[in-house]
């Protein structure tokens, strides 16, 4: 018994040593490396937080409040504090402190978005079903974007509507247009035509995502976005930083749907030729759903980990395009610009499939 207790204590001590010191409001993992960002976003999209009870949420919030005011009860570990922060960030909006509707949380994006991906990739789609699934996908994205919006610097409702309509129109137009072209291609065999049709959702969704980000954020190219110094102080705004942020966000939105909408058709075209699925066609939908879920679960954290939330811009490239705010002139004299620009919390990964 003594040996067991000693082993358990040693294991607990080792786990505690691996846990970084808790920092309120800061990421648990380093954001300077891809691996650190990947682990960070795995935490954010963890679907287990969907099952957190109201009492557990209150406990987590209270624990963070105690830490903030220096009244933590004895024995609270760093692991418990990180877990409490993860729960709070997964459920409550950081600006409004209100609960986010479960289907529109980042942790709910994969489980609630996978059925839509399956619908997008269904074979032999009609015109009506193509329009429906593309509309439903962009509507789900719009709801996720709005639920996770930056409420401290809100965009006008017209911007969201403009981005939503642009995304829906572009997605539906490209999907319908490409399907029509494939149907008219007489050189393809029926099997080849079906395979090509399965890849139509990707260019439709990717173009809609780019259209959405350009429509919603084009004003940043003219006005610039906030630039911070190395201490996190806002020192002005930069159009160069805005251009970098816009390009990286657009690239993320193109990369994200690629494995989700390209890998499943390839995998299913192989699996459908197996004896199991040919003899049991009823298994096709469950197998395709599992393949889509696996691709979604892998692609989401990988795509949103590509670029850091805070991008570093060379000082020489930022200064000519920084528009200083009068009340910050004194601060600028004392604090040099380090060249860090936030990409803003752009409605999370709902940026979307």
Automatic annotation (TrEMBL):
GO MF term set: citrate transmembrane transporter activity; monoatomic ion transmembrane transporter activity
Pfam families in the record: SFXNs
GO cellular component terms given for this protein: mitochondrial inner membrane
Cellular localisation: Mitochondrion membrane
Keywords: Amino-acid transport, Membrane, Mitochondrion, Transmembrane, Transmembrane helix, Transport
Single biological process term from Gene Ontology: mitochondrial transmembrane transport
Membrane topology label: Multi-pass membrane protein
Residues that span the membrane, as ranges: 163-182, 250-271, 283-307
Domain of life, per lineage: Eukaryota
Sequence segments annotated as region (Disordered): 329-353
Family: Belongs to the sideroflexin family.
This protein's name: Sidoreflexin
Organism of derivation: Phascolarctos cinereus
Gene: SFXN5
């Amino acid at each position: 018994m003594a040996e067991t207790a000693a082993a358990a204590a040693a294991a607990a001590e080792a786990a505690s040593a691996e846990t970084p010191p808790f920092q309120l409001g800061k990421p648990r993992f380093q954001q300077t490396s891809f691996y650190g960002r990947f682990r960070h976003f795995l935490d954010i999209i963890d679907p287990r937080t969907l099952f957190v009870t109201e009492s557990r949420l209150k406990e987590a919030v209270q624990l963070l409040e105690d830490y903030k005011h220096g009244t933590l009860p004895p024995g609270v570990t760093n692991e418990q504090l990180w877990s409490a922060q993860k729960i709070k960030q997964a459920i409550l909006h950081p600006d409004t402190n209100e609960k986010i509707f479960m289907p529109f949380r980042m942790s709910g994006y994969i489980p609630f978005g996978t059925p839509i991906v399956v619908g997008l990739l269904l074979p032999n789609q009609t015109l009506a079903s193509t329009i429906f699934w593309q509309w439903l996908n962009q509507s789900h994205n719009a709801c996720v974007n709005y639920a996770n919006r930056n409420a401290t610097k809100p965009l006008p409702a017209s911007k969201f509507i403009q981005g939503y309509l642009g995304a829906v129109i572009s997605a539906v137009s490209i999907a319908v247009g490409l399907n029509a072209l494939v149907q008219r291609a007489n050189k393809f065999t029926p099997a080849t035509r079906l395979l090509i049709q399965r890849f139509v959702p990707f260019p439709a969704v990717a173009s809609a995502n780019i259209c959405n980000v350009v429509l919603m954020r084009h004003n940043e190219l003219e006005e610039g976005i906030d630039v911070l110094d190395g201490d996190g102080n806002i020192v002005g705004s930069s159009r160069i930083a805005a251009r970098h942020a816009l390009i990286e966000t657009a690239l993320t939105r193109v990369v994200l749907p690629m494995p989700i909408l390209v890998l499943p058709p390839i995998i299913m075209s192989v699996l459908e030729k197996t004896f199991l699925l040919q003899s049991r066609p009823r298994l096709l939908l469950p197998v395709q759903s599992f393949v889509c879920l696996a691709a979604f679960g892998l692609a989401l954290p990988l795509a949103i980990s590509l670029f850091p939330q805070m991008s570093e811009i060379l000082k020489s490239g930022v200064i000519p395009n920084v528009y200083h705010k009068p009340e910050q002139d004194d601060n600028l004299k004392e604090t040099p610009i380090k060249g860090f620009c936030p990409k803003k919390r752009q409605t999370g990964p709902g940026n979307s499939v």
